């Protein structure tokens, strides 16, 4: 193993929560708002409910690993050739997800904060910080997340507290006025982005000190992160209304601009930007770490750190090449990306569980190890 860093259950839970929030904090509310209108908060709740079987599937797969990562497990159970093919197919997921999330950061920065700065410069600066974090290893990443999490929680509490006086519950009426189908369409995306993408945690779950309870920690962290997102979606609808929330690329950032306390505390959108940077940073860093760790495990390398620089250069190029402009990028994300997330979140854990069941059946059959009697016992 190239890295034997161990993290505690609490650190793992914090990582799961921050990864669940991730980039969804800024971009997710627009999608259910455009589909379900004023029922977007119901879509967010339904998305969490629909994700529970997926999270349960992750927990089952993790118990089958027996201390191995997903890449190591498919190599051991399915053989070198099939394991390598499946492993490389799986690694396409963190590769594309990392590039997409870096692109989201670049688009946001040139849209709202640094409009005159080339997007390539923003990508280079951000990927440099990500590569530095990934090079430190899993334990320093988890410890840093544990340190920054109270600040994230403080900023989120402040954000909700200052917006609470502006809530107008008339914006959520009538409930289910558009029917159930729009709610289900919004719930599809609400389940895909935050929760299905947690499948990458099957690469680092073996490093949790108490592996037997890692599945429970994953479940708890994902649900807590989901509650944060449900709160944010509900605030967008109750304060901005469904039309503004659905028409904005970053409705949560627009929501933060609504904070106004007296005549001295206004325009605190920096609160939202800091929360987003914290959660998105740890999500991308874990993806980049898992990507390079998986490559090292696939090709039996001694370590993953020499891969970080060329991998970072590839991610910067891919983040630009993945879409020609922000409109095309948003169409790609909203229409097609959820199906890719569901494919990796459902198919690969099922492959792991199926391989485990097949090996168990072979070992317990007449020709297996359990079915071979000693000569003197016959």
From TrEMBL:
GO cellular component: membrane
Origin: domain of life: Bacteria
Topological category with respect to the lipid bilayer: Multi-pass membrane protein
A Pfam family recorded for this sequence: Spore_permease
Main location: membrane
Transmembrane segments: 12-34, 40-61, 82-102, 117-135, 147-167, 187-208, 220-244, 270-295, 307-327, 339-358
Location(s) in or outside the cell: Membrane
GO terms under biological process: spore germination
Keywords: Germination, Membrane, Transmembrane, Transmembrane helix, Transport
Family matches, as InterPro entries: Spore_GerAB
Family: Belongs to the amino acid-polyamine-organocation (APC) superfamily. Spore germination protein (SGP) (TC 2.A.3.9) family.
PANTHER family linked: SPORE GERMINATION PROTEIN A2
Protein known as: Endospore germination permease
Organism phylogeny: Bacteria, Bacillati, Bacillota, Bacilli, Bacillales
